[in-house]
Structures are given as C-alpha cells and as structure tokens.
Design goal:
The protein is of the alpha+beta class and 120 residues long. The protein contains 4 helices and 5 strands, in the order βαβββαααβ. It has helices at residues 10-17, 66-72, 82-87, 99-105; strands at 3-8, 23-27, 40-45, 48-63, 107-119. The chain has a 5-stranded mixed β-sheet. The chain is globular, with a radius of gyration of 14 Å. The protein starts with a strand and ends with a strand.
C-alpha cells in the first residue's frame, strides 16, 4: 500500500469529506498511473491545507478522455448533483486538463472510500 497526497478546491474537498463524491477525476499521468486499489490518498483543501481527508482507492476507471469517462460513470458519484448531471459536459474538465493532455495521458476516475476527515 502506498500513500499519495493531492490537492482539491474547497467544494470538491467538502463533497469527498461528506461522502457525496466518491469518484475523483484526474489526468492519468505519471503520478496517477502509480495508483493501485488499496492505496491511500490524503486530500488537502487548497484554501485550508490543515484540513485533510484520508481515502482508500477502491478502483481505477481509466478512459481515453473525459467524453468516454462521462458516458461510462455515474456523474453523481463524480460530484455532480442530480440537476447538474443532466447538464454536465466533458468540456467542463478542460479548465484543468486540455484535450491535448487527455490525448497524451488518458484520464482516470479514482473510486474512493473516505476513511477519516478533519484537521490531521
């Protein structure tokens, strides 16, 4: 089992902490390609780094791009509300990862189980 640290903006951080978001979307780059089920990820709130959530990787869902991922995974598990999921667009993720990066690395939905939360 390996430990990883990742940063999250406050809104997705809170959703993971509350168990409302169980799949984190990332580029499947060098760092994420080292992830395995059972590994631990400590998420830090970008605006309050003393706030942390410890999670376990349950599964990795690897796709060519966010269009394929959005078509395959339940978007409510990815942090969208039921109302937002209807309007969700894979292009939303281009704010973080360009189409070129998606083509180069692929993308991953990291399925998580929250183990602990708070100030650690």
């Amino acid at each position: 089992m390996n430990f990883f640290e990742m940063h999250l903006h406050p809104a997705p951080f809170r959703k993971i902490a509350r168990g409302e978001k169980t799949i984190e979307l990332r580029l499947y780059d060098e760092k994420r390609s080292d992830l395995r089920p059972g590994d631990r990820i400590v998420f830090l709130n970008t605006e309050a780094p003393e706030e942390k959530v410890v999670t376990a990787v349950k599964a990795l869902h690897i796709y060519e791009d966010f269009s394929a991922l959005y078509a395959a995974l339940p978007l409510t598990a990815c942090g969208y509300s039921e109302e937002e999921a209807v309007l969700a667009d894979p292009a939303d993720m281009e704010v973080y990862y360009s189409k070129e990066l998606q083509q180069e690395y692929g993308v991953v939905g990291i399925e998580l189980v929250t183990l602990s939360r708070g100030v650690l």
